[in-house]
Design goal:
12 helices, Rossmann fold, 2 domains, seven-stranded mixed sheet, alpha/beta
């Protein structure tokens, strides 16, 4: 893994997802896409134009969406089931549990426009519970890539992986963090920068903000380790234990409620292995209001400055 500083052009990770999906579909005729009247928002227009017979649009019927995906997988196809993350997980959770996870069916669940990406559409469209819901179900790998390069790598990995996957893909623009040679590995975190005073663990749209926060802290003489934890389940316990042992404090950042998601997963490992001061930064157990995604992240203290301030507050507990 080679890391870049995160500066530069912003990219929509959906483009990287569908570009890789189309590249794989050229080589593998068994790859199919299934969506819920979301061809445009899932960026599947190009896929539909090239392989109209391999794009199944079930309409606004997410329970059917997942059931059709499971049926296709049982018939030997490799389905990428695409829908807005809020509706895929909220409306079809029973089908995810019974039709996909319980039978360990080879379905790739792609939660599009996750977190607060649909900002202006309000609480019904925010997906800030999906980690918690899906992480609690056995057999499902839960993955939240940090940039377009990791999104492409995770999509390629998902196709090769034999089993259910929940791939969380945002539409909020993020800069490149990794170089093109980056390979995604399930259950493995990536240390993006080292530091001795505390560790910031993040994923998805929050990773580049965590890197920027570490740079702010470094300017003030505080060394912050930054760990990208794209794999939420299974989680890299070794990286968490090392972070706790080496730096003595952990701050988690996620575009999700602080209950049941990345922060909770990290806390579970910390409390059982190396108890240290820990703070979970995310949505504080309320319904997220209407507003642009970037505005909402900032409002919940997840701007680079806000993350840095939370880190300083955490260090006071460490002392």
């Amino acid at each position: 893994m080679k890391f870049q500083n995160g500066a530069g052009e912003l990219h929509d990770c959906r483009d990287a997802f569908t570009s890789m999906l189309e590249a794989m579909a050229e080589r593998d005729p068994d790859i199919v896409a299934v969506c819920n009247d979301s061809v445009g928002s899932s960026k599947l227009v190009g896929f539909r134009e090239r392989w109209p017979e391999r794009l199944i649009n079930v309409g606004i019927a997410e329970q059917n969406l997942v059931g059709v995906g499971a049926g296709l997988a049982n018939g030997g196809k490799l389905p990428f089931v695409c829908a807005a993350a809020c509706f895929l997980t909220g409306r079809a959770l029973e089908q995810i549990k019974a039709d996909v996870a319980y039978s360990n069916t080879n379905v790739k669940l792609c939660g599009i426009s996750s977190g607060m990406a649909y900002g202006e559409l309000g609480p019904t469209h925010h997906s800030t519970e999906d980690f918690a819901w899906v992480r609690a179900i056995p057999n499902i790998a839960v993955v939240a890539p940090a940039d377009r390069i990791e999104t492409a790598a995770a999509t390629a990995w998902a196709a090769a992986y034999n089993g259910p996957v929940f791939l969380r893909i945002s539409r909020v623009g993020v800069p490149d963090l990794f170089t093109e040679s980056h390979k995604f590995e399930l259950g493995r975190a990536d240390m993006l920068r080292d530091g001795k005073d505390l560790t910031i663990i993040a994923n998805g749209t929050l990773t580049h903000r965590a890197v920027c926060a570490a740079e702010i802290l470094n300017a003030g003489g505080i060394g912050a380790r930054v760990v990208n934890m794209a794999s939420v389940r299974p989680i890299d316990e070794d990286a968490i234990v090392s972070a706790a042992s080496d730096t003595g404090a952990i701050l988690t950042c996620e575009e999700h409620t602080i209950f049941g998601g990345l922060g909770s997963a990290v806390a579970e490992v910390v409390v059982e292995n190396v108890p240290v001061p820990l703070k979970r930064l995310g949505v504080p157990g309320i319904f997220v209001p209407t507003g642009s995604a970037n505005f909402l992240l900032d409002e919940f203290g997840m701007s680079p400055d806000g993350i840095a301030e939370s880190a300083i507050e955490l260090l006071r507990k460490k002392a």
